[in-house]
């Protein structure tokens, strides 16, 4: 009887160990499955929504030039390993806006310089010191990692020339005119975008050296 009890106890212990091991294997299998699915999703996203390249040199050469959100008067220039984001002053470039709301003689364009630290050609990502990741979409246009910033479209068009205020009919604007809801939204989104840009630059200041010209 004692031997039977010992055998039963040994069997129960072995069964418990096997059951525990099976649970561990199930957990490991589930973790592996999640990792595989995540990799597959990322692979699909990269190769269907982004432009990838064969090498760093190929990507750097392909991405040089100007990218713009024309209606918001914002653009990005990539020259070598330098990336420059500029918010153009509305009243200096939009004649209709200047006529209605006045030409702001004191305002200047806001210019933010950053350095490209890595050309991630396999994933279509340009990494920078403080501006964040710049994603290259499937059409070769770019956006900052947070899609809130919108898409900067590749363009061969040069930046528009600033308005000569002496050519304006009413450089002081029409004080009775108010911004339309659409214009207010554009300006609010632009101001928020610029504030986030300045916050990112300020946060990175101890480590990076992004220049700001205002």
What does the model show?
By secondary structure, the protein is α+β, with helices and mostly antiparallel strands. Helices cover 42% and strands 21% of the residues. It has helices spanning 2-49, 56-62, 90-93, 95-101, 181-204; strands at residues 65-69, 74-79, 82-87, 110-120, 125-128, 134-136, 142-144, 151-155, 212-213. The protein has an eight-stranded antiparallel β-barrel with strand order 1-2-3-4-5-6-7-8. It starts with a helix and ends with a strand. The model has no long low-confidence stretch (mean pLDDT 85).
Q: Give the overall silhouette.
A: elongated
What percent of the residues sit in helical stretches (DSSP H or I)?
40-55%
Order of helices and strands: HHEEEHHEEEEEHE
**Low-confidence blocks of residues:** none
**Mean of residue pLDDT values:** 85
Strand order of the largest sheet: 1-2-3-4-5-6-7-8
What is the SS-derived class? alpha+beta
Name some characteristics of this structure.
214 residues; single chain; 21% strand; 9 strands; eight-stranded antiparallel barrel; alpha+beta
Condensed summary:
This protein is α+β, with helices and mostly antiparallel strands.
Topology:
Layout: H1 2-49, H2 56-62, E1 65-69, E2 74-79, E3 82-87, H3 90-93, H4 95-101, E4 110-120, E5 125-128, E6 134-136, E7 142-144, E8 151-155, H5 181-204, E9 212-213
């Amino acid at each position: 009887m004692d031997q039977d009890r010992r055998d039963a106890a040994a069997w129960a212990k072995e069964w418990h160990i096997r059951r525990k091991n099976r649970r561990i294997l199930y957990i490991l299998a589930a973790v592996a499955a999640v990792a595989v699915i995540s990799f597959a999703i990322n692979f699909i996203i990269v190769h269907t929504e982004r432009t990838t390249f064969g090498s760093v040199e190929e990507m750097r050469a392909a991405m040089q030039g100007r990218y713009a959100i024309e209606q918001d008067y914002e653009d990005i220039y990539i020259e070598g390993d330098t990336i420059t984001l500029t918010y153009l002053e509305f009243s200096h470039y939009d004649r209709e806006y200047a006529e209605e709301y006045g030409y702001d003689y004191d305002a200047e364009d806001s210019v933010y310089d950053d350095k490209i630290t890595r050309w991630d050609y396999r994933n279509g990502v340009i990494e920078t010191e403080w501006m964040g990741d710049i994603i290259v979409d499937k059409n070769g246009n770019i956006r900052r990692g947070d899609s809130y910033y919108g898409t900067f479209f590749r363009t061969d068009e040069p930046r528009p020339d600033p308005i000569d205020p002496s050519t304006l009919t009413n450089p002081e604007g029409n004080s009775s005119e108010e911004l339309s809801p659409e214009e207010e939204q554009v300006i609010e989104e632009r101001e928020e975008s610029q504030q986030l840009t300045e916050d990112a630059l300020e946060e990175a200041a101890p480590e990076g050296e992004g220049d700001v010209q205002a």
